Amino acid sequence: MLVGLPKEIKNHEYRVGLTPASVRELTTHGHQVLVQRGAGADIGLSDAQYEAAGATLAADVATVFAQADMIVKVKEPQPQECAMLRPGQILYTYLHLAPDPEQAAALIKSGAVCIAYETITGPGGGLPLLAPMSEVAGRMAVQAGAAHLEKSKGGLGILLGGVPGVPAAHVVIIGAGVVGTHALQMAVGMGARVTVLDKSVDRLRQLDLVFGNRINTVYSSAHSVEEAVLDADLVIGGVLIPGAAAPKLVTRSMISRMKKGAVVVDVAIDQGGCFETSHATTHTEPTFMVDGVVHYCVANMPGAVARTSTFALNNATIAHAVALADKGWKQALRDDPHLKNGLNVANGHVTYEAVAKALGYTYVNADTLLA
Ligand SMILES: NC(=O)C1=CN([C@@H]2O[C@H](COP(=O)(O)OP(=O)(O)OC[C@H]3O[C@@H](n4cnc5c(N)ncnc54)[C@H](O)[C@@H]3O)[C@@H](O)[C@H]2O)C=CC1
Ligand SMILES: CC(=O)C(=O)O
Ligand SMILES: [Mg+2]
């Protein structure tokens, strides 16, 4: 198979879908890899390293899309990328379609086979291709929150860990999955007072066993979210219902009653966000204010630490990329129900139920396309 690697074009997105090591995995399996010149240059992955791994270089992105049987990316395709996809071509990347009707329409129109990293499941449960970026974003959420609590950024002017004689900040984390757990680790490490909420009591139980009385675990309800948020200095939103639009757990009314200068970091923004007042922002302009509350809603947070993130992402994506290249998409999906869960759009149909439901399309079971 001819695998294509374009350079990412989203705002301040320096990650790359394949490292030279991943290219070598593909070429040693007998595949060809066409790399857009400079695809990894911003994070120190040179064209010479890609060539040494067996890749061929393409001068421009149009050549990559025109020739490749499978495109491997990081972020959801931007409109000009969607326009270059063709029927039967495989697109393997993050998609986050539920809150993105324009992208969904473009992918349906393209006829391409679109496999979303974020809905591929793992044999042990969870979402193993989302997990590494959630680890990064969860850790970064505390860094971003701490920075924006500074006065010059619109924040309250408080230090997360306090100092002897002055109390620490109160950090509230909604969603105790991968983002929530990694945010928790950093917030506890920086000396904050931490409350974590989740609908899963089992998840809270696990965290309680690890962190004991260094954190407060709270069952998530409209009442407990409101109580926690109104007392918070920093709120981190990391809830997820896989594939679906995020539930709006923090309402506009709650935001209006928060402390002026408090900060919210809506990590779940790529699924539409869990704060009613959120809208996606970019690394160039990461925040906006609503009722005196700083909102940080960057949809590609790991892009800021692109080198770390690229290696972490490739660790999780390369095995399925090789399977897709070796077997073709139909056989690869027939052989692996977890990879099949990644199929969101194919041959003009929406094949992921939560996406179809969120956007009002007819759901077509992937099995009907694999027969
Ligand atoms: N903005 C960015 O750059 C990035 C965003 N993300 C996003 O972060 C979100 C979270 O991802 P993960 O932590 O990997 O998901 P996860 O599945 O590990 O955790 C989600 C947690 O939310 C909980 N939850 C669901 N409904 C809830 C409710 N009503 N109240 C409280 N908790 C609730 C679940 O029980 C689960 O523990 C996803 O939308 C993901 O796409 C991930 C990486 C980067
Ligand atoms: C998960 C995701 O959307 C990101 O890493 O940018
Ligand atoms: Mg989008």
UniProtKB/TrEMBL annotation:
- Annotated EC: 1.4.1.1
The record, for CDD domains, names:
L-AlaDH
Catalytic residues identified in the record: 96, 270
Species for this entry: Albidiferax ferrireducens (strain ATCC BAA-621 / DSM 15236 / T118) (Rhodoferax ferrireducens)
Report domain Alanine dehydrogenase/pyridine nucleotide transhydrogenase N-terminal positions. 4-137
Which InterPro entries does the entry link to? Ala_DH (IPR008141), Ala_DH/PNT_CS2 (IPR008143), AlaDH/PNT_N (IPR007886), AlaDH/PNT_NAD(H)-bd (IPR007698), NAD(P)-bd_dom_sf (IPR036291)
Q: Does the keyword Nucleotide-binding apply?
A: yes
What is this protein called in UniProt?
Answer: Alanine dehydrogenase
Q: Where are the transmembrane segments?
A: none
Q: At the top level of its lineage, which domain of life is listed?
A: Bacteria
- Reaction(s) this enzyme catalyzes, per UniProt: L-alanine + NAD(+) + H2O = pyruvate + NH4(+) + NADH + H(+)
